[in-house]
Structures
1.
Amino acid sequence: MDAMTTTCPSYSTWLHSPAKRWGDLTFCALATAPAMIAMLLIALAVLLRDGWPIVLRQPRMGMSGKPFQMWKFRTMRPGAGDDECRITSLGRFLRRHRLDELPQLFAVIAGTMSVVGPRPELAEIASGYGPLHRQRLVARPGLTGLWQIRGSRRKAIHEQIEYDLLYLSRASPCMDMWLVARTIWFILAPKTWQI
């Protein structure tokens, strides 16, 4: 493991800056109208092709270890079995374009998430975090971040902690804007994603 991941980073003051929160709200104000149209169309498509439920909620661990409910469009068939086999054709499209995560905009508005930040981990996994991994919880989890655009999509979040720790130590307005721009590019060029 990289030396960076074995020591506590010096956290960026940008993480808890009022300006970052205002940036989140500004992003949501600009994105909510087109996102709402997209979400209505996606909800209708999921309902017609795959039935209920349209959205799923998952308990995730937020800043300071406070749990919250994260909403996503359903992309898998209900039931047991291999996750890869349960992904629907529509779900695969939504995941490839990251459209299944659009409902998380409401978590940003509510203040439980940020536009850019560490990836939100499942609550049952985060509850077993040791001191190293708990460092990820010093900031609001993000819709996007370094892990989302640089990490392997085939590995668990907690196996790639170095990306989140790097962001936490170097977060800045410029880095956030760069990560948002890169995320938009990945959405438009989904072949770059590792599903």
2.
Amino acid sequence: MIGFKPLNLETWQDLQILFGDNGACGGCWCMTWRLTHKEYESNKGANNKIKFYNLIKERLPLGVLAYYNDFPIGWCSISPRKSLIRLENSKLFKRIDDKPVWSITCLFIHKNYRKKGLSTRIIRAAVNYAFENGASIIEAYPIIPKVNEMPAVFAWVGFVNSFIQAGFKKITQPSETRFIMRFEK
């Protein structure tokens, strides 16, 4: 049975199990969008893990975990955009208006559970979590694959079709391979 829980102090251990020693991908620990490029690079690995844990201790909204029975199998990062420094400074994903939005910036699915429709389900759970925490508009920045089989390491922002299936609408296409999409309450 698939279930979802928000990331907090009680579920932190589950995220560590899911991410493993490498922090999901190359020491990221879901800090890519939360730090400047320079800060992120200098903190890869253990320091990013500590920084992310400190955000959890502050009880900030960070995302949702997916479970199969009690085993963590997926992660979706969702936070108010204003808390995502690199996203706020992005030329590619510059704000399209001044509305307060929450942003989905990462999907991480355990390799044994990929290509089973979990992405759409965890996106929906993340949207519900954000709405429960005061959001009214959710943005995402998924990839438009140029090939049928894309390595998972390049799919961490999610695929357009998963977001369409979750009810998102295409707003703009800032590059050949990326969309800005929205889900509004």
